[in-house]
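ok so for the tutorial part 2 we go from a plain amino acid sequence to predicted structure tokens. step 1 is just haveing the sequence, like this:
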Amino acid sequence: MTDVSPDVRLAEADALRAAGHPELIEAASHMLAGAFGKAEPLCRIVLKRDPLDVNAMRLLAEIGMEVGRLEDAESLLERALELAPDFRLARGSYANVLGRRGKFEAALAELDALLAADPAHPGYLILKANTLVRIGDHLSAIAIYRDVLSRVPATAGVQMSLGHSLKTVGDQDGAIAAYNSARAMRDDLGDAYWSLANLKTFRFSDEDIDAMRRSAARETVDREDYYHLAFALGKALEDRTEFEESFIWYRRGNAIKRRLITYSADDNQSDMARISDYFTPDVFDARSNAGCQSRAPIFIVGLPRAGSTLLEQILASHSQVEGTQELPDIISIARRIADKKRAGDPSNYPNGLSGLTDSDLTALGEEYIERTRIHRTDAPFFIDKMPNNFAHVGLIRLILPNATIVDARRHPLACCFSGYKQLFAKGQHFTYNLTDIGRYYADYVGLMRHWQNVLPAHVLHVQYEDVVADTEIQVRRLLDHCGLPFEGACLRFYENRRAVKTASSEQVRQPIFTSGLDQWENYEPWLAPLKTALGETLQTYKQ
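step 2 — the prediction. this is what the tokens look like for a chain of 543 residues:
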């Protein structure tokens, strides 16, 4: 749910009481406790009794947002607002789901309407700031976060959001101050410690490490706080070269996180095989006249922690190229084609592409260009750095045949272990187990070989270690693949002060260094499961 002040939550509870809904009050209580399975039936009891009850619709939509049924949530809220156009809580929830579904302009329009009537409402202000963050307007978001913090009782969540945006725009001192303010409000707030660790350049004091250990040892510590603390302790002890204890904490954090997510390496392997089987040369030959002809997108694909942020920073330092962020739009299109109504349903991707006409494929490409427009200005080219798009190279080729695609690759042990010790804000569920991440890397390399076979020379493979060893040669090679003239600024990428949202944000604001290439070797005694899972890929990953 949106992080708002306690006063806003009390007002929401008062509204439910005034509506005379004991079931919905109980449902709201379950929602705050994260028990969505208990909350949903209570909302449905009310709706069965009164199908036009807008309070029940709104709470059911909130549950839908929490469990990932965003389309259902949007429909429920649209219906609630048809029945009660002045229902502000529903309109706030509607703005939230629009933003979650990538409909940012519509979300901001709803929020501006709400703020026109109540300019100081902290919940709407925070939701607007969060939406601005999602389109990359961090400076405007920072101003809103600071405004809210100056006028309402401070919350650790808003301080954390402020810190994340300050980090993204390169204000490391401001980010550290915000994270420290958050942990001062709650000394066992694991996310505050992890966010400091995730700056990569921050070093914890002895007192900080003792405080994290004390918090992690408390019987009352929340699981989410615990795994954040575990990852932060792993990083703090790594910086002190205490590698054995560091690995113990990384392993603890990963083990808890793995239990909280759903991921199957077998299912992923089957998905990759199905994609490989479908996309034959005949598929591309038959669709040679399909697709939006725009040359604007440059896709950087691969695995997280493989050097993609460095390649993005190099390209975004070119006068004709704009860096955006990891855009969800290709994955969103693939999910529509998959047509899965609920978890566990069989996927229709990529086979569902066979039912689309050339015009349909062109429309999907045009939709992608239009949906991503809000993240861009007027540069001729823009970068989409969603790493998981490596699975969708075939889809990209069909709907955007002139797009540029770059595969950012890194030594498997370096890449996989870097992913293993990274706590991701969302997604990347394969990273929380050494065997899972090793198998994923092997499946990724196998699929990239397939793309090279069926789309020769369409995807440029850039090896991170080669960029470090001879930056200029690799930069020229990268620019040639993109059809761009060489510019010296691409070699001075560290001078580019653009916003960078990923875990490498501070590292790409510095010249290339070699010290990170072999950090995995410090942990080699414990990496046998990873090596076993990688198998022959450990020797053939460059092919």
